[in-house]
Amino acid sequence: MEKTILITGKEIPLGEALGEAARKTGRNLVITYEGIKTSKEDTTKIKKYPSGKTVETLWNRGSNAGARTVLVEAERLFHKIDETLLVFDADYYSQVFRDLTSTGCAKIIDNLIAGFIYLTWELTKRYAVQNAGTLVFILKAKKNSYGNIPLSAALGAFEKLAEETGEISREENWNVHLFRIQDEFSENGCNKLFQFLDTPKNKPNFKWNRISSKEKFFF
Questions:
Q1: Strands (E), the chain
Q2: pLDDT tens, 6-23?
Q3: Cα–Cα nearest to 46, from 8, 77, 3
Q4: Cα 82 to Cα 84: distance, rounded to the nearest angstrom
Q5: What pTM was computed for the model?
Q6: Cα-flanking dihedrals φ and ψ of residue 102, to 5°?
Q7: Contact, 154 vs 131, CB < 8 A?
């Protein structure tokens, strides 16, 4: 049976790599991007590949309506979302969000705190109705500090959001997995992640698992 997966952050190299790996598994892929449309192309049009179908959709992270729009669009095209990968790449964000003025701080709050909370909230409501689903939090951070207070706060918020969502899921029939990446994530690492997701015996343990492209297994 075909699965549909939602992945956040096509503009992030890690998000794009995960999207490519997902497509190779035969999953239908909905992948979000940020920014303004630069062409007249219909970005919600399904793109067909030999191994599956893909749609790229704009995610307005700063509002709950933006999160709901992403999910409604995915459901319109593929009926339901079976899996979701929420990607927080602190290394990437440290290069993008370097404006530490009040305006820059507001952008970090909207994009890296509020956006993930809105999307997680909408997803958990849908998974509860479906009585099924898998939600994966992926955190990539090489450093403990980036010299950027609002980014560090956002990183901490993402960690706590993941952990609390895992706790909530204990009594539910949908799953939460937490993965922490600490090295350069390669195609091999992406493939290992999907092998993990496709192994039925892997049950959530609500703790951060480390995934490395250099190691054979998760630990």
A1: 4-7, 28-33, 47-49, 52-58, 83-89, 134-140, 175-181, 208-211
A2: 999 999 999 999 999 999
A3: 77
A4: 7
A5: 0.90
A6: -60, -35
A7: no
